[in-house]
Design brief:
Elements (H helix, E strand, L loop, with lengths): L1 H27 L10 E18 L3 E18 L5 E11 L11 E11 L7 E17 L2 E19 L7 E14 L5 E17 L2 E15 L10 E17 L3 E13 L4 E16 L2 E10 L2 H8 L4 E2 L3 H4 L2 E15 L2 E14 L2 E16 L6 E13 L2 E17 L2 E11 L11 E14 L2 E12 L10 E11 L2 E17 L4 E3 L11 E16 L3 E16 L2 E18 L2 E14 L7 E15 L2
Antiparallel strand pairs: 1-2, 1-30, 2-3, 3-4, 4-5, 5-6, 6-7, 7-8, 8-9, 9-10, 10-11, 11-12, 12-13, 13-15, 14-24, 15-16, 16-17, 17-18, 18-19, 19-20, 20-21, 21-22, 22-23, 23-24, 24-25, 24-26, 26-27, 27-28, 28-29, 29-30
Length: about 600
């Protein structure tokens, strides 16, 4: 593995070196480059000298002097629809990825190619490879662990598009990732492969679509995520056919069939699903819709609804389960912002040699009003009654409220969502969920602004006591001229399944369908300050404190970490001088001894070039 990473790093360094030489040659020629006939290129980026130094209580000290760069090479040959491409390499650059992790140093390349666009056979190819050090990994969406990571992805797609014939589109992709906790060489790895086919065709008024998808994955969970190492290999194949046809009275008819097969080291099982739906609108203000669905494996269908294939030995439970679901809905637009919706749901379930039925019926009233008193308000409320073969069950409530109001220098938005007993797939238990939050903004002075936002998502009723899920996030920012101060806090805890990509999938069903659940708890607190001096100097600093823990079958693991970061950037025309310092401390139950500490220094001098 180490040899492969070194080889990949050398390849990226070679690509970066080639672009450096091209940039240098282009700069020496005063950007007067004559490309190959019919080849149009655009190249720009930064390159320069980089000094790195690292020291720690278990890693020793190291120093390196080299070059750093990031660039973009894009263009096309003959015509953009014939062949177009974009290559984006970076080498030892200081970066920030707000979606998933904060990266101190990163090396990698991203590339994409488009072939024969607009023709009967369009295609695409993409490839990416990255190495990141001193990263913040997220657990259930909360930055919780400090470490290093690497990963790669490759995908290729092609199509066959002819008028009057069935269309065909195919894609194939592979990806892998490796994560290492700060202070240890133990690795968590994941890899996956997927293949998808999609075809559409129209005949005698029917719009037909067929799909085929195959997904396989291998996972070795990192020790900092699960109390014991999990090694898993699984695959999933899905086939589906759907047909739609227009009906009188502005209506439509839909028919569908799908089959899913899943396999792991211990189980192999499948599920078939049949669906029929129809809807009409006999009056512009009135619409009526109906749906019927039968699923032969309710547990597998529930797993698919989570969005990611989970690592859980629940397939054997689902081999003896099925569910039939029927729904009728009517929507009537009264006018003046008022809409009335009524519905009837009926379910027939067979699970673990037991049969059960229930009926849900109810309605909602949606009201939307705008006037000078409330600013803008949207409000809806509904009641749901559940009846089974044993009698009436609990009465559920569904409500939604959102409000936007501006008064003076203040501007505020708020919303609230509550739903209970609305699950229609694998409805073994009654569950409920809350989702509420808001934002407030205030201009204190002409140059002073403040804003804050809050969001909470939590489960109410759950299958078992103690299996509720909760996620909170809070962010505030104060800015004055060229000064900015930001603070944020986030936490998440509850019950989750481990996904094949090493992520956690929160679910309120607890051990009803599996004992392979993790109880997780993750918290993150951060503060960032920045300012700009003399229009050319930018100073910034940040502090982050993270913690996480997980428990499975009374065995647990914990991680705690702190990070201090300071950065200065000076821009003088096309020259950039960047210096940075990072101090990280990580304590983990999987790393014996004292907490691990790493100090990192980074200085670079680079210049921006545009070659052609």
């Amino acid at each position: 593995m180490v040899y492969r990473e070194m080889k990949a790093r050398r390849l990226i360094a070679v690509i970066a070196t080639i672009l450096v030489l091209v940039l240098a040659c282009g700069a020496s020629a005063n950007a007067q480059v004559t490309p190959i006939n019919n080849l149009k290129l655009l190249m720009n980026g930064n390159l320069g000298a980089v000094y790195n130094a690292n020291s720690g209580n278990s890693t020793g000290s190291s120093h390196s002097l080299g070059f750093g760069m990031n660039g973009t090479l894009e263009g096309y040959y003959f015509n953009p629809q014939f062949l177009s491409f974009q290559v984006r390499p970076y080498y030892d650059r200081d970066q920030l990825n707000s979606d998933s992790q904060s990266i101190n140093l990163g090396t990698g390349v991203d590339s994409s190619f488009s072939l024969f666009g607009g023709s009967h056979f369009p295609g695409m190819i993409s490839y990416g490879r990255n190495f990141s050090s001193d990263s913040e990994f997220s657990i259930a969406g909360v930055p919780s662990v400090l470490g290093n990571s690497s990963g790669s992805n490759f995908s290729i797609g092609w199509g066959a598009l002819f008028s009057g014939f069935p269309t065909l589109q195919a894609t194939y992709s592979i990806s892998d990732s490796t994560s290492t906790l700060l202070g240890t060489t133990d690795k968590g790895t994941s890899s996956s492969k997927s293949f998808n086919l999609n075809s559409t065709y129209s005949i005698v008024g029917f719009n037909l679509q067929g799909t085929l998808g195959h997904y396989s994955a291998d996972l070795t969970s990192p020790d900092f995520l699960t109390p014991s190492t999990v090694n898993s290999s699984s695959s999933n194949t899905n086939y589906s056919i759907t047909a739609t046809h227009r009906l009188p009275l502005s209506g439509s008819l839909g028919l569908g069939w799908s089959r899913t097969t899943s396999a792991s080291e211990t189980d192999e099982f499948s599920s078939n699903s049949y669906t029929a739906s129809a809807g009409i609108s006999p009056w512009p203000r009135l619409s009526i819709n109906g749906l019927w669905n039968y699923t032969s494996n309710a547990v597998l269908a529930y797993e698919q609804s989570l969005g990611e294939v989970p690592v859980m030995p629940s397939g054997s439970l689902g081999s003896n389960s099925n569910i039939t679901y029927m729904n009728a809905t009517g929507t009537f637009l009264v006018g003046h912002g008022l809409t009335i919706i009524g519905y009837l749901n009926h379910q027939i379930r067979h699970f673990q040699e037991e049969n059960s039925e229930n009926t849900q019926y109810g309605g909602t009233v949606n009201f939307q009003k705008a006037n000078n008193l409330f600013g803008f308000m949207r409000f809806s409320i509904g009641v749901v009654d559940t009846a089974t073969q044993d009698g009436n069950g609990i009465i559920g409530l569904v409500t939604n409220l959102s409000l936007t109001r501006k008064f003076g220098q203040w501007e505020a938005t708020a919303d609230f969502d509550y739903s209970q007993d609305t699950q229609t797939l694998y409805s073994i238990v009654t569950t409920s969920n809350y989702n509420y939050g808001g934002m407030i903004r205030r201009r204190i002075l002409s140059s002073v602004n403040w804003n804050a936002s809050f969001r909470e998502t939590r489960s109410g009723l759950a299958s078992q006591k103690g299996t509720n899920n909760l996620a909170d996030s809070f962010t505030t920012n104060l800015s004055w001229r060229k000064y900015s101060l930001t603070g944020s806090y986030s936490q998440a805890n509850g019950e989750a399944l481990l996904g094949v990509n090493g992520t956690l999938i929160a679910t309120p069903l607890g051990s009803t369908i599996s004992d392979y659940f993790l109880t997780f708890n993750a918290r993150s607190l951060s503060a960032t300050a920045s300012t700009q001096l003399f229009r050319v100097v930018t100073l910034s600093g940040s502090y982050t404190k993270v913690s996480s823990s997980s428990i499975q079958n009374e065995i647990g693991t914990f991680n705690n970490g702190k990070r201090y970061n300071a950065r200065v950037a000076v821009r003088m025309r096309r020259l950039y001088l960047i210096g940075g310092y990072d101090h990280a401390i990580q304590e983990s139950s999987v790393v014996p001894g004292r907490p691990q500490m790493v100090n990192s220094y980074y200085v670079s001098l680079s210049r921006w070039f545009k070659v052609f």
